[in-house]
Specification:
There is one protein chain. It is built from 6 helices and 20 strands. By secondary structure, it is α/β, with parallel strands linked by helices. It has 3 domains: 166 residues, Molybdenum Cofactor Biosythetic Enzyme, Chain A (3-Layer(aba) Sandwich); 57 residues, Alpha-Beta Complex (Molybdopterin biosynthesis moea protein, domain 2), CATH 3.90.105.10; 87 residues, Molybdopterin biosynthesis moeA protein, domain 3 (Beta Complex), CATH 2.170.190. The strands form 6 sheets. It has a 6-stranded mixed sheet with strand order 7-4-6-5-9-8, with no helix packed on it. It has a 6-stranded mixed sheet with strand order 16-13-17-20-19-18, with helices on both faces.
């Protein structure tokens, strides 16, 4: 765990009151990496797995394909027929193999089986001639043997994926196509990391919630809605703590509650140097602060650190903290 005292040695141009944006991003990345012991895992169904992060490798319980099958519509036969001379091969059609309805008898040396794409290869057959290369008269087909090689147009069991091999690796974000892949393997549940919980609130006696009546000098709180929308797109769980008054007891209570219930806490407002801005004062007593400002305009007042739910920094449950300015375009 890197503390703010170490940043002067590991981050170039470290200045907590005027940190370059790239350095600030590097600090956030360092602090945001969870320890393996802190990663919580849960099992979820495929319907709940979309956009979740896999906690462990997914191992295939079956071969894919699960059996030798035809790669196209055509006629299946034993490759020994290809060794015949004369340039063309004549075979009698012994039956038909459909996907889900196999032909179970073994064709003779001069026989073949009409087969559809995905159908189980009949016993003794290892090659498929595409129907486009065949001339059929009644129950007899003819094709040129020079256009085929032994084993052609057959998909082997386990050719795409072997049983016991990893399908998807830990750390992958599950996408729509992954759900289809997992379902094709008969996998109904996967282990994923628990979603991050992010608590957020706005501070300011002048703020009113949507639906309330504005009094002189007050304005509607819009920042929480922007934060909610951005967090929702990230796929995290959100805890909206509403508006917190500009007094130390209210703000301390909100910070402790947020730290107890969330992995990340975001406040809007209260990180400047005004007389009523208590966030900075509380952060100095309840947290490890990495920086207060970044060298960027707008958005210069940006606090980042680690909150603690205990009586002082370093005690109780930790949570990362981002203190945003109340004015989104603060200079």
């Amino acid at each position: 765990m890197t503390t703010s005292k170490e940043f002067s040695a590991c981050v170039a141009q470290y200045d907590p009151d005027a940190l370059p944006v790239e350095a600030a991003q590097e600090i956030v990345r360092q602090w945001a990496i969870p320890r393996a012991a802190d990663v919580q895992v849960e099992r979820v169904s495929l319907h709940d797995a979309l956009d979740r992060v896999l906690a462990e490798d997914v191992i295939s319980p079956i071969d894919v394909p699960a059996f030798d099958n035809s790669a196209m519509d055509g006629y299946a036969f034993a490759d020994a027929a290809l060794a015949r001379g004369g340039g063309t091969i004549d075979l009698s059609v012994a039956g038909t193999a459909l996907a889900g309805r196999p032909f179970t008898a073994t064709p003779g040396a001069d026989e073949c089986v009409r087969i559809m794409t995905g159908a189980l290869m009949p016993p003794g057959c290892d090659t498929v001639v595409p129907q486009e290369l065949v001339t059929r008269a009644g129950d007899t087909i003819r094709f040129a043997n020079a256009k085929l090689r032994a084993g052609q147009n057959r998909r082997l069991s386990g050719e795409d994926l072997a049983k016991g091999k990893p399908v998807l690796h830990a750390g992958r974000i599950v996408r729509a196509s992954d759900l289809g892949l997992l379902a094709s393997l008969g996998i109904g549940e996967v282990s994923v990391r628990k979603r991050l919980v992010v608590a957020f609130f706005s501070t300011g006696d002048e703020l009113r919630s949507v639906g309330e009546t504005l009094s002189p000098g007050s304005l509607y709180d819009s920042n929480r809605y922007t934060l909610f929308a951005m967090l929702r797109r990230l796929g995290v769980e959100t805890v909206d703590l509403g508006i917190v008054r500009d007094d130390r007891p209210s703000l301390e209570k909100a910070l402790r509650h947020a730290t107890e219930s969330a992995d990340v806490v975001i406040s809007s407002g209260g990180v400047s140097v005004g007389d009523a801005d208590f966030t900075r004062e509380l952060m100095n007593s309840l947290s490890e602060v990495a920086f207060w400002k970044i060298a960027m305009r707008p958005g210069r007042p940006l606090a980042f650190g680690r909150l603690w739910s205990g009586e002082r920094a370093g005690t109780g449950k930790p949570a990362l903290f981002f203190g945003l300015p109340g004015n989104p375009v603060a200079p």
